[in-house]
Amino acid sequence: MPHQTEQPGADGQTGWNWLTHPPGLRTLAALLESTCGETLRQPRPQFGLAGISLETDEGSVTVQEELVLDAPFGRLLRFRAGALNAPPLLLVAPMSGHAAAQLRDTVLGLLPHYQVHVTDWADARDVPLSAGAFGMDDYIDYLLRFMRAIGPGAHLVAICQSCVPALAAAALLAEDDDAAQARSLTLMAGPIDARINPSPVNRFATGAPLDWFEDELISVVPAPLPGAGRRVYGGAMQLVASVGMEQRRRLTSVAAGLADPLVFWRAMLELGSVMPRQQPVLDLAAEFYLDNLHEVFQRCALARGVLRHRGRPVRPERMRHGTLLTVEAVSDEICGAGQTRAAHALCTGLPAAAKRHLDVEGATHRDVFSGTCWREQVLPELHRMLASLPPKARRASA
């Protein structure tokens, strides 16, 4: 399908829509927190993979889970099954308000072919103020640190939100000819260029000035939680904000309630409940949320060639070795068609033969890394891509 590109205005915005950015979000988030706080605060899901048996061509193997590195805003976990010399792979979980355990099916599919390392991001409400701030630069720093902890020859797989910082980290390591540079890079359903076929998520992110998001969506972690005093994009607020995106087509029917935020949100709740139904949500550090919003969606900095990491330009074109695989869901409701594939145009240093793209038929956003579409379409293509590496490169990653 043809790509439709929506260009932000001079101030980085495409317009301010009060129907999708209404007043009263703080009020509803506080109400949700007070009525569903215990649900929001329930223990975060765990992978639950350690000790389970997997049937392979070589017989039954047992999954082992190890903690490789522990840092305030995230841990590096390693899952192994089968051969101890299996190629290392870093799976970068999105920092999007859900625990990394949502990638359990992804990890299972990759085992036992690889030693699967996973970024297990912390809940910002549990990180003391003494740990400092956490913004986009810090996120990229963590990826660089994790890749170096894994060592040479690791494959890098990023999902959703993590695609932009993962590509940035890969580019920085490649430019420095770092021994830890990625052997291959796979980007799945991520907004490399959010201007292309903008989704409701993109329009929400560009529909108001950055100050609006900071003033309306950012709160402070209360005592006695470990992160008391830290500014966050809270779990309750994430659920509230999602209503505007999910119900944007019906908002006009309750527009009269704009004069009274409580009336407006009562009508919104009748249209689509925001009560948590699946798993607890995690608070995001305010610095990261606002940086990601500004750099990825409002400025589209990586796609425009103006992204910097601690003042240093990020140059994907400096990647000259390895392979690139991009994956998109045909019916993705979050990441528009072409947004991830845009990485091909940025990675000009890679030959055409080293770049592949997969459109996943019958798939929505989550299907690219979980369920039947992941197992039957994405995983086989990923295996084929890595198997296409030259023999010398495969030995280097073993």
What's a quick, concise take on this entry?
By secondary structure, this protein is α/β, with parallel strands linked by helices. It has helices at residues 25-40, 104-110, 136-150, 163-175, 200-206, 210-217, 235-246, 261-271, 286-298, 301-304, 343-346, 372-387, 391-396, and strands at 53-56, 59-62, 64-71, 74-80, 88-92, 115-121, 155-159, 184-188, 219-220, 231-233, 284-285, 308-309, 312-313, 323-329, 355-360. It contains 13 helices and 15 strands.
Question: Could you describe the 3D structure shown?
Answer:
By secondary structure, the protein is an alpha/beta fold. It has helices at residues 25-40, 104-110, 136-150, 163-175, 200-206, 210-217, 235-246, 261-271, 286-298, 301-304, 343-346, 372-387, 391-396; strands at residues 53-56, 59-62, 64-71, 74-80, 88-92, 115-121, 155-159, 184-188, 219-220, 231-233, 284-285, 308-309, 312-313, 323-329, 355-360. The strands form four sheets. Strands 3-4-6-5-7-8-14-15 form an eight-stranded mixed beta sheet, with helices on both faces. A three-stranded antiparallel beta sheet has the order 9-10-11. Strands 1-2 form a two-stranded antiparallel ribbon. The protein starts with 24 loop residues before the first helix and ends with a helix. Mean pLDDT is 85; it is low at 6-15, 249-258, 271-278 and 392-398.
